[in-house]
Design goal:
3-stranded antiparallel sheet; elongated; 12% strand; mainly alpha; two-stranded antiparallel sheet
């Protein structure tokens, strides 16, 4: 079942890379809010979605007390992170299916789309080479964003 294993490894790497990068928002919260890392961790963990955490960081960056260069750096990094959330969510919130050989894979969305007179669910998409390349590109992008958050942390003296 080589393709099945490849997909699982790739999705695992995507999840690890996302979580590791998202956790760096703790440093952004600490630095922008002018608090210590421990307090920023409590704030981060209290907000229970990536969108809420990114919104907080973006709003803190937009405060008038934030120097313009810092604001621009943080907003660019969070914008880039936000662009990756859709693919991350797709692979975290879907059902996977493979043929008996583990070669041909599909994802099925676990979202419901409801209109006045119908319910649709489970958009099915192929897990082909194009999709695997998209996941790999997302991972590379997240690694670059991770490095950017560390550079911002160092450049502006945010708590480590």
């Amino acid at each position: 079942m080589p393709r099945f294993k490849d997909v699982l490894l790739l999705v695992g790497q995507l999840n690890y890379t996302w979580t590791n990068t998202e956790s760096l928002l703790i440093h952004m919260i600490a630095g922008l809010a002018g608090t210590d890392k421990e307090t920023a961790i409590v704030i981060f963990l209290t907000l229970n979605t990536p969108r809420a955490r990114m919104d907080l960081v973006e709003r803190l960056a937009k405060l008038s007390k934030t120097p313009q260069a810092c604001r621009a750096d943080v907003l660019d990094a969070t914008r880039r992170l936000g662009e990756q959330v859709k693919l991350r969510n797709k692979y975290n919130h879907c059902i996977y299916s493979f043929d008996a050989d583990g070669e041909t894979g599909l994802t099925q969305s676990m979202r419901i789309f409801e209109s006045r007179d119908a319910v649709k669910y489970g958009k099915v998409e192929a897990l082909d080479d194009v999709e695997l390349a998209r996941i790999q590109d997302c991972i590379k992008t997240l690694i670059a964003i991770n490095r950017t958050f560390w550079q911002i942390t160092d450049r502006y003296g945010f708590p480590k």
